[in-house]
């Protein structure tokens, strides 16, 4: 299968199937442009049909994750757009979050330094987040005169850290420290900056070695069960699990258990 070949960020794929997406404008703390937004969206959309990619790690070059939309290349032009053009842009940014959520692969953000605005939204949309003690995360939209409701933040963030904490961050736009982020559940764990990438890729490798089809089913259920009544959710999980029980990986796990061996999953 053809790999993505982006122009506006770095892409690599390891032999085991871990894709690395690196935002690569370190001199500006890796801001996004109209073009990089669209290319990220298209890349994550393409992963739905890419069996070679088993997990994705998003990071930023240098000592920062992402400073959000580029002030000069995005914010300035937005002040001169009409409503139709503005809505086209905001829907595109939201489509990036949708694409991250809808790809079946686990998406992991490795966050160092500044993680702000759209960068915070990308981290929020990821399945797992790992940071460093110097990571600073800010949904800073109100600080530029906009609503904290951006790219799904009012839906996702309360589910990750709780309604009260999310309300404070989205209303004030203040930075959440790494310690707060770990304590509140935004970060799954913190690493020393020098150990972040190795630690996150070790976690990604562990996921890649798991039952990839079943992981995709798990991610889908996490997505669709948000607004289900409990009876509907239990039925949906019964059907999802019955599907996974037909996979070769399920049989492999049983046979390995009988032989007192570790199963070797193949994602089918």
Which CATH architecture of the largest domain would you pick?
A: Alpha-Beta Complex
CATH topology of the largest domain: 2-enoyl-CoA Hydratase, Chain A, domain 1
Distance between the termini: 17 Å
Q: What is Rg?
A: 19 Å
- Main β-sheet description: 6 strands, mixed
CATH class of the largest domain: Alpha Beta
Q: Would you tell me the structural class of the helices and strands?
A: alpha/beta
Shape: globular
What share of the residues does DSSP label as strand, in percent?
5-15%
Number of beta-strand segments: 9
Mean pLDDT equals: 96
Query: Low-confidence segments, ≥5 residues, pLDDT <50?
Result: none
What is the CATH superfamily label of the largest domain? Answer: 2-enoyl-CoA Hydratase, Chain A, domain 1
Structure characteristics:
single chain; 268 residues; alpha/beta; 2-enoyl-CoA Hydratase, Chain A, domain 1; 2 domains; 6-stranded mixed sheet; 3-stranded mixed sheet; 11 helices; 9 strands; globular
């Amino acid at each position: 299968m053809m790999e993505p070949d982006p122009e506006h960020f770095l892409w690599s794929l390891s032999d085991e199937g871990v894709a690395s997406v690196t935002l690569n404008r370190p001199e500006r703390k890796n801001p996004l442009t109209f073009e990089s937004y669209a290319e990220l969206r298209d890349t994550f959309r393409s992963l739905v049909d890419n069996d070679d990619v088993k997990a994705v790690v998003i990071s930023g070059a240098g000592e920062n994750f992402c400073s959000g939309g580029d002030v000069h290349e995005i914010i300035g032009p937005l002040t001169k757009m009409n409503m139709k053009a503005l809505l086209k842009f905001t829907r595109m940014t939201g489509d990036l979050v949708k694409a991250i959520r809808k790809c079946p692969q686990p998406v992991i953000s490795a966050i160092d330094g500044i993680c702000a605005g759209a960068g915070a939204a990308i981290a929020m949309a990821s399945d797992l987040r790992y940071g460093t003690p110097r990571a600073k995360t800010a949904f800073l939209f109100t600080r530029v005169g906009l609503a904290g409701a951006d790219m799904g933040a009012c839906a996702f963030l309360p589910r990750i850290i709780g309604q009260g904490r999310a309300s404070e961050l989205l209303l004030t736009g203040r930075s959440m420290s790494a310690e707060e982020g770990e304590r509140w559940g935004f970060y799954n764990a913190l690493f020393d900056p020098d150990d972040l990438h190795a630690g996150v890729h070790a976690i990604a490798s562990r996921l890649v070695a798991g039952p990839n089809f079943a992981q995709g089913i798990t991610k889908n259920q996490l997505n669709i069960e948000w607004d289900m009544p409990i009876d509907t959710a239990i039925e949906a999980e019964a059907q999802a699990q019955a599907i996974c029980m037909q996979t070769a990986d399920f049989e492999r796990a049983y046979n390995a258990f009988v032989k007192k061996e570790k199963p070797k999953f193949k994602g089918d």
